[in-house]
Design a protein that fits this description.
2 copies of one chain form a homodimer. By secondary structure, chain A is of the alpha/beta class. Chain A contains 14 helices and 7 strands. A 7-stranded parallel beta sheet of chain A has the order 3-2-4-1-5-6-7, sandwiched between helices. In chain A, helix 9 links the parallel strand 5 and strand 6. Chain A is globular, with a radius of gyration of 22 Å. At the A-B interface, helix 3, helix 7, helix 9, helix 12 and helix 13 of A face helix 3, helix 7, helix 9, helix 12 and helix 13 of B.
Chain lengths: 330, 330
């Protein structure tokens, strides 16, 4: 083991492979900072990844995603598997300092060598959330974690990029999550694999359960019918049942050869998402650094140059993408 | 006026300028189809735009955004101004065929020559929602509409690109919109300029009002305190009050010189959003069309090539963006 600041690429690769917590912590910090060494680490470790099972945990802020993960960890660890948690939810107690119930549950796990928990900031990360989440997941995978929970806030479409790394997507709702129900109903939010309705003691929990059932019932064509579990994460109620549903979904994917297909699709999607993020950031930097491109924006603002002509000129200058690559057919 | 299929660039420009409905309809269809002619039209018309006031109407599906716009139109038209509506919400009754109440209200407006209503599909549009919304807005602006409502579904961040064309953003919620309240509270949803809580007859409307007040009260630093109006759009209740708040926000922006600044920022944001969308679509097409790039994805899926190296190779090949432009500092 190396001390702070003494990590080399080799010692980090070895450290992550052996599941060393400090190596993992350092590696994920490198990911957060978009350090070139993070890229090299992931490249070195990639061939041995693909062993961890990734569970994406999404849902609106405040529904108890973090405490549900904490409760699932307690249950899962008693069964044996090791686990990692990556929280990319800016509103998560994992990230911000937890409320009493969460703090107690989380504290247990922070002391458990079989669990690695990490919140991630990605402000200004060139490849965006998608890249940071993917790299962190691959590191935890390489570190031999059997399970990785990826927590993201999601109330619509924007979490998709991050959920795109998950084998199984768990959507967490609570009584009062009317907007999410409407979004599911309108087809704007993708149907998840498993749904937990947390805070089951709330008088409106049963109403929410019926609403979710009704929405899911509209879709007769799905082979996998997303199960719905009422949970109370602080007291750990129905956590074994929820875990069982997650296990069943995994078994369904593995039995029908769908896991491999889903992972293929997701990896391709991640490559696109990361490349798109990079293209966007590259664009913003280029315009920021180039007075000529900034002048284009000024002309747009004076209504002397229309916005789409400005876009064309920027695309040509920054990406060497000209006519015939743009809106016109080849 | 020209018949179907007989439009030329000149006749379309003239037709849009004079507010001819068929010319507008044809022009927006060209926008939807990403036809090069749409680009030329907007370029020709751009110098005379900037006269319309754009109100973005956002919120989760099912809260009654469309019927609220219909009610606002009835109120506004009686006062004189002409108006356009662009609906980019796949769950909107403007797009899909309205329920009884909406249908009656909408039918009135379809017959009013001072109102132009259009829903837009943007599937496969190279520049995405941002580009289509911007072009449609500019066309309605050039057609002399005093007001343009841009309706988009929004439960989180993803609607931002479209709302980015709006001078004033109206967020519509309803009793049960708990997820949106949480998203506002967590700072994940941007604070709008005006909030309507629709379906005010619902017993939980007052509770929702208090929750929204509480969330907004946390932010003491804002000069403009977003007003909250309880509405009932089907019966038209409190619609004049809501309109008054929208007018007040506009006056606030104009009085303090903020409108010009906001429009400058928005136009720059739109140029970036459109360019990013184009870059993404260009990327996807390039990978789709190029067997060598597809082989990169296959290698990633076989875990022979790590995803970020694949991203780098794709960026180099597609955008000629190499080392030094990527994650490494210059």
């Amino acid at each position: 083991m190396a001390g702070r600041g003494q990590w080399t690429r080799e010692s980090l690769v070895d450290g992550v492979r052996s599941g060393d917590r400090r190596a993992l912590a350092r590696a994920i910090t490198l990911v957060e900072n978009a350090d070139p060494l993070a890229y090299e680490l992931v490249r070195d470790l990639y061939p041995t990844t693909g062993q961890a099972y990734a569970i994406g945990v999404t849902g609106p802020p405040g529904v108890g995603k973090s405490s549900l993960i904490a409760a699932l960890l307690a249950h899962v660890r008693a069964l044996g598997p090791t686990a990692g948690v990556i929280s990319i939810d800016p509103s998560s107690p994992f990230s911000q300092g937890a409320l009493l119930g969460d703090r107690i549950r989380l504290a247990d796990h922070f002391l458990d060598p079989g669990v690695f928990i990490r919140s991630m900031g990605t402000r200004g990360h060139l490849g965006g959330l998608a890249e940071a989440a993917l790299q962190a997941l691959l590191l935890l995978d390489a570190a031999g974690k059997d399970l990785v929970f990826v927590e993201t806030v999601g109330t619509g479409q924007s979490e998709v990029e991050v959920v795109g790394v998950a084998d199984t997507v768990l959507l967490v709702l609570m009584p009062g999550s009317g907007d999410s129900i409407q979004a599911l109903k309108a087809g704007i939010m993708e149907i998840p694999d498993v749904i937990a309705i947390n805070k089951m003691d709330h008088p409106a929990a049963k109403t929410m359960l019926n609403e979710v059932r009704q929405v899911l019932g509209l879709d007769h064509d799905r082979v996998w019918k997303p199960p719905i579990v009422l949970t109370e994460s602080v007291r750990g109620e129905n956590i074994p049942e929820l875990w069982e549903k997650l296990v069943q979904h995994r078994a369904h994917l593995e039995r029908d050869g769908l896991l491999e297909e889903r992972r293929r699709r997701h990896l391709a999607g991640e490559v696109f998402a990361v490349a798109s993020s990079r293209a966007k950031q590259h664009l913003e930097r280029a315009v920021h650094d180039d007075p000529e491109l900034r002048r284009l924006l000024d002309a747009v603002q004076r209504r002397e140059l229309d916005p789409l002509t400005a876009v064309k000129e920027i695309m040509e200058k920054v990406f060497k993408v000209g006519e015939g690559d743009g809106s016109r057919p080849h």
